[in-house]
Amino acid sequence: MKSNILIIGGNGMVGKTIARIFASRNPNSNIFIGGRKPGKTENDLIIDVTKPQTFQAILNHKIDVIVLSVNDKGDHILRFAIENKIDYLDITKPTPDLTRAYDFAKKQSINSRIVFSSGWMGGIVSGLINSFSGQMKDIQAVELFVYYSVKDLAGESSAHFMAENVAKPFVNYQNNTPVSIKHFLDAEPFEFSFGIGKRQAYNFDVPDLYILNKIEKVPNVSVKMTYNSKFITWLLGAFQKIKLFNILSLKERKMVFGSSGNGDQSVFEIVVRTKNENKKISLQSTKGQAELTALSAVLHGEELLKNNHDNKIYFSHQLYQDSSLFESLNAYETINIQVTE
């Protein structure tokens, strides 16, 4: 049976990559691209997340799964999916938008699969933890370390998020207590894998902080990141210390974070601590963050299509049993995963 998949934001960098990977792995599916402007084929649909009157095209084409790869601050697509009983997968939301959307969805009558997948790189961190760490209830702490290269291909959304939020405090969790912190402060040395070596890593806000603490009840959760350039990493920390980001305009902050290169590796490492052991899960995407995020979205979409899941709200890691997510990621030719005790 053919499935109709709609990628809203499918003309963006990640959206195009989702379409490419999904088509190569699922040749029997119909893939529709939703964007604000007309396209060249009958599978290009005009769908503007700020204009609900354009959503009729979703019903006209009998869409089975909506993949949202553009920020929908008004949650119009989420509301439409719930009202019309259509499966929904969102990979775009920063933490404040995610918590608001989740709180809204919990109050609704759900008759489809509503999947929030806005954690780091398409929401795979918690899934990898599940693959290697048994039950979440036994975990005392999770530390996520991110290596970000300014040479990597990057879309506008991540740069815009940083520009909008870099001067705002956010929280990590210590003994189940939210602790207010800011980006690029509280440096911590960390030995990265894949030849990167020791780097200073700084505070960084991703939705995994909320997901791991509030949903999976891990009492201690922190996220830190480093850039491929040690100078840039230091400079951003210095800007934060002197509160320069507070006086820069949004346009100027976008210029600071808006660089994009021709491609580079993307790496993140998860340190999982239980009472009895510490474990490090290291992942490298040799084709960068856009490829990894898109692959994650495709895997989640395939999971919805191929396996029976009840109609309810999920975070993406909750779709998988045992090590199935790890096995799917590890089978992809540009992904390398290492696990060390």
Can you walk through the features of this model?
It is a single chain. With 341 residues, the chain is of the alpha/beta class. It is built from 13 helices and 16 strands. Helices cover 34% and strands 27% of the residues. The strands form three sheets. Strands 3-2-1-4-5-6-15 form a seven-stranded parallel β-sheet, sandwiched between helices. It has a seven-stranded mixed β-sheet with strand order 10-11-12-7-13-14-16. A hairpin with a 2-residue loop joins β8 and β9. The longest helix is centred in the last third of the chain and has 18 residues. The chain is globular, with a radius of gyration of 19 Å. The mean pLDDT is 93.
Q: What's the helix-strand series?
A: EHEEHEHEHEHHEHEEEEHEHHHEEHEHE
- SS element count, helices: 13
CATH homologous superfamily of the largest domain? Dihydrodipicolinate Reductase, domain 2
Biggest sheet architecture: 7 strands, parallel
Spatial arrangement of strands, main beta sheet = 3-2-1-4-5-6-15
Radius of gyration: 19 Å
> Structural class, from helix and strand content?
alpha/beta
Shape: globular
Number of domains: 2
How many beta-strand segments?
16
Strand content: 25-35%
Q: Fraction of residues in helices?
A: 25-40%
User: What would CATH call the architecture of the largest domain?
Assistant: 2-Layer Sandwich
N-to-C terminal Cα separation, in Å?
Answer: 44 Å
Q: Report low-confidence residues grouped into runs of 5 or more.
A: none
CATH topology type of the largest domain = Dihydrodipicolinate Reductase, domain 2
**Mean pLDDT rating:** 93
Provide the CATH top-level class of the largest domain: Alpha Beta
